[in-house]
Design a protein that fits this description.
This protein has seven helices and eight strands. With 208 residues, the protein is α/β, with parallel strands linked by helices. It has two domains: 3-126, Enolase-like, N-terminal domain (Enolase-like, domain 1, 2-Layer Sandwich), CATH 3.30.390.10; 139-207. The longest helix is centred in the middle third of the chain and has 21 residues, at 99-119. The chain starts with a strand and ends with a helix.
Length: 208
């Protein structure tokens, strides 16, 4: 099953962050930027993968189009592990994060999607048995400028039914420990609070 086509798409979907409009890497975060990869084979099957978007959408697309696509054309789409290993070695000089890793992730997802389609099965059945009927979700980020604003935003979302929140340390201006304490006091003990450091925590912060 040879790969005969590689296509990329960039979608921008407007959304409301619930707070003041923000930018990252020069791009407006009032749209969800996502890069999509479509792999086509000589048997007429296709698979779709998603690459990390946000502020890196343009560079990820350039990597997919200029480097990954030429490298996978003509390759066996069934050899997911071998193809991923060879490309990881070929691209290792570009680093272990960023556009090349995002591109490889999109390829991995697309090839597994293609494999599932080839077997006529949903992907989860190929990866193992169903473990649960429902998967809980969480709200990621509270994009307000102050701690008071983020607490108020959390209260509003909690009132809409959200019971789990992921907090981003990079925007915790008063400190992540103080933010968790304020949210816990405002939301009560039954709400799940998570924190992602975004490479922003010092050693003593998680210890506290």
């Amino acid at each position: 099953m040879k790969i005969t086509g590689v296509e990329t798409y960039w979608t921008r979907i407007p959304f409301d962050m619930g707070g003041k409009p923000a930018t990252m890497g020069g791009l407006n975060w009032q749209t969800m930027n996502t890069v999509w990869l479509r792999i086509v084979t000589d048997q007429g099957l296709e698979g779709w993968g998603e690459a990390f978007g946000h502020a890196s959408a343009a560079t990820t697309m350039a990597t997919l189009d200029a480097q990954l696509a030429p490298a996978v054309l003509g390759q066996d789409a069934r050899d997911i592990g071998g193809l991923r290993s060879r490309l990881s070695k070929a691209f290792h000089g570009f680093g272990r994060n960023g556009a090349h890793v995002f591109a490889l992730s999109a390829l991995d997802i697309a090839l597994w999607d293609l494999r599932a389609r080839a077997h006529g099965l949903p992907l989860w059945q190929m990866l193992g048995s169903r473990q649960r009927e429902r998967v809980p979700g969480y709200l990621s980020g509270l994009p307000a400028a102050t701690l008071e604003g983020r607490v108020e935003m959390a209260r509003r979302f909690h009132g809409q039914g959200h019971d789990a929140f992921k907090i981003h340390a990079v925007i915790s201006s008063e400190g992540i420990v103080e933010e968790v304490a304020a949210l816990r006091e405002a939301l009560g003990d039954d709400v799940l609070l998570m924190a992602v450091d975004n490479v922003g925590l010092r050693q003593r912060s998680p210890q506290r």
